[in-house]
Write a structure and sequence with these properties.
With 593 residues, the chain is of the alpha+beta class. It is built from 14 helices and 31 strands. The protein binds one RNA strand of 77 nucleotides through strand 23, strand 26 and helix 13.
Length: 593
RNA sequence: CGGGGCGUAGCUCAGCUUGGUAGAGCGCUCGGUUUGGGACCGAGAGGUCGCAGGUUCGAAUCCUGUCGCCCCGACCA
């Protein structure tokens, strides 16, 4: 719908809104696309809505291509379905809960797996009805602890969520692949750079999960990628264990005095000074085995203290630890944990700063050791590897302690941080670390929800089988912000053609009647030709203001009708390149096609 | 949820230290002059100074509480 700027419901701001930090937020507010209602909640003005609709249209087309049918669920949902799957509790403070007049519990849905599953259960009961893929474009509500960056993390956001239903694992693979392909087409059409990373699926009980990340410095996720094509979330990154080595030529372990070395840095310095390596190479942090005490809270509420051993040049990455120990909640051991250990007469107290798995009289860490404390090690602590580690005596470390010979662990675990240069597990070379914003997520849910909610169908043999599901999300409003983030320049927004709020922005620059006569005619002509035109017809606004607004609003094609209008010449202004080309007004419509 | 910062006109901000009739620029309205990079002159409209208590003759200003917002971190799409 072509519009005259003098009538369009919009007001551009000359200055940046003070509460907007990132470019997309700043510019969308300044250019009059959105207005803030509350933290993480936005109203949409005509310009913003038009862009949104265009993104939605592309998503709808590709959903149709993937064979998914559109449905629509209310955002307002009763408690029961979410109670059955445990998410009424699980979601905690993230859930917007409310009560009706009869005091019954409701929520504003943060996601719709439950009700989609129930609807299919309601209608279908035969394998012949499957596979089925259905989706909606609906607002989601999550009471985020910290909404931020405008549309990028709101408490109300619009999401396309699709769900697939199959009765075989192979069928799920096919449905999953169709959605995955659709996502690739969507992001390609939107001109959004993306990488597909393996995501951790374990905690949710699913089997396969990939995230579409748009690389950007303001991204919230850290991911790793190799030149050879490997990409993964840091949580999903796995470390290859070095091959086991023979102990035969290794010297026996030796306890040495290392006064005042409670940290890895001090230890390395003292080791090099007092106990240099016989081969002349200097000790490094990677030669040390750091033992970190963690406190786990298990699902049943019990508290467990565990120790993880990892090379001293790496920190524990708590996100990775969280995944590795899921579903237990992980934190570094608290003062209370240490006090409890000290109070227990059966556990020799651990010497903070000098903790290690070994003592001359036997193992100190491990389920079968004197303490019984579970001891898990990094994959790099492979059989035959030698370490400097705590001797459980203040001011002393043991040198040349060999895994497999002198100590063993209760298993390996991935808690160490991933560093740039680490080898990709698929052998495709060293990885680099990058920041990304999640713009899509495809997920094989498996039978978790179908089981919980009793979605079964009869198979070919007349046997009841539980349906297997996938869920596939794309954040519509987030994508809009990510596009704005990726395409703006210092002067304003700069939309790709297929999502720009208008096809053409006409600027009437000048006060002579002829300027407006030519502009009016052009506006009518282009609209008739099927273009969606924004016409800056404001009579008393100076050209400078109009140019500035045109740049701010970001329609890619701008036509300036000005000083040469009387001669039938206008200018074609390419918003992206800034280039202005004089053109005869007569055949402009065909030139733009 | 931890740390930091901020709430005064539609927007960006000053005033608060040292209590005394609420200000500027932009935007908006009217009149006039301007019109190729955010023009000018004149006249206007617009604010319970986030909210609630308190201190005081008197509070935007001091005190207490509370709500909201932004940023960093933790967490999450």
């Amino acid at each position: 719908m072509s519009s005259r700027l003098s009538e369009l419901f919009v007001r551009t701001l000359r200055e940046d809104p003070v509460d907007a930090e990132v470019a997309s937020h700043r510019l969308l507010v300044r250019a009059g696309y959105i207005r803030r209602q509350a933290a993480g909640v936005f109203a949409w003005l005509p310009l913003g809505l038009k862009v949104r609709r265009k993104i939605e249209a592309i998503v709808r087309e590709e959903m149709a291509n993937a064979g998914a049918q559109e449905v629509h669920f209310p955002a307002l949902q009763p408690r029961e379905p979410y109670e059955i799957t445990g998410r009424w509790e699980e979601y905690g403070d993230l859930l917007f809960r409310l009560k009706d007049r009869k005091d019954a519990d409701y929520l504003l849905a943060p996601t719709h797996e439950e009700v989609f599953t129930l609807l299919v259960k309601d209608l279908y009961s035969s394998y012949k009805d499957l596979p089925l893929s259905i989706y909606q474009i609906q607002d989601k509500y999550r009471d985020e602890a910290r909404p931020r960056a405008g549309l990028l993390r709101g408490r109300e956001f619009t999401m396309k969520d699709a769900y697939s239903f199959d009765y075989t694992d192979a069928g799920l693979d096919v449905s999953y692949q169709k959605q995955r392909d659709a996502y690739e087409r969507i992001f390609t059409r939107l001109g959004l750079e993306y990488v597909i990373v393996q995501a951790d699926a374990g905690a949710m009980g699913g089997s396969r999960s990939e995230e579409f990340l748009h690389p950007t410095p303001i991204g919230e996720d850290t991911f790793v990628r190799s030149a050879g094509g490997y990409a993964a979330n840091v949580e999903a990154f796995t470390t290859e264990a070095p091959a086991a080595r023979s102990y035969e030529k290794l010297t026996p372990a030796e306890v040495l005095s290392t006064p005042d070395t409670p940290t890895i840095a001090t230890l390395v310095a003292v080791a090099n000074e007092k106990h240099p390596r016989p081969d002349g190479r200097a000790w490094t942090a990677a030669d040390t085995l750091k033992n970190i005490v963690l406190g786990l809270t298990h699902l049943d509420g019990t508290r467990e203290v565990v120790v993880v051993g990892l090379p001293g040049d790496r920190e524990v990455d708590m996100k990775r630890a969280e995944v590795a120990f899921a579903p237990a909640v992980v934190e570094t051991a608290t003062e209370a944990d240490f006090l409890r250990l000290e109070a227990d007469a059966n556990t020799p107290s651990l010497v903070k700063g000098y903790i290690g798995p070994w003592t001359p009289t036997g193992a100190l860490l491990g389920e079968d050791s004197a303490t019984g404390i579970r001891y898990l090690t990094d994959p790099r602590v492979s059989d035959g590897s030698g370490w400097i580690t705590g001797a459980n005596v203040h001011g002393h470390h043991v040198f040349g302690l060999v895994a497999g010979r002198d100590f063993s662990s209760d298993g390996t675990i991935e808690t160490a941080e991933v560093l740039a240069g680490d080898p990709a597990p698929d052998g495709s070379g060293p990885v680099e670390l990058a920041r990304g914003m999640e713009i899509g997520h495809v997920f094989q849910l498996g039978r978790k929800y179908a089981e919980a909610l009793g979605l079964k169908v009869l198979d070919e043999n007349g046997k009841l089988v539980t349906v297997t599901m996938g869920s596939y999300g794309v954040g519509i409003t987030r994508i809009l912000a990510v596009i704005a983030e990726a395409t703006n320049d210092g002067k304003g927004l700069l939309w790709p053609k297929n999502v720009a709020p208008f096809d053409i922005h006409i600027v009437a620059a000048g006060r002579e009647d002829v300027v407006y006569e030519v502009s009016d005619a052009l506006y009518a002509q282009l609209t008739d030709a099927g273009f969606d035109v924004l016409y800056d017809d404001r009579p008393k606004v100076s050209p400078g203001v109009k140019f500035g607004d045109a740049e701010l609003i970001g329609v890619p094609v701008i036509l300036i009708v000005g000083r040469d209008a009387a001669e039938g010449t206008i200018e074609l202004w390419d918003r992206r390149t800034g280039e202005r080309t004089p053109m005869p007004v007569a055949n402009i419509a065909s030139a733009l096609r």
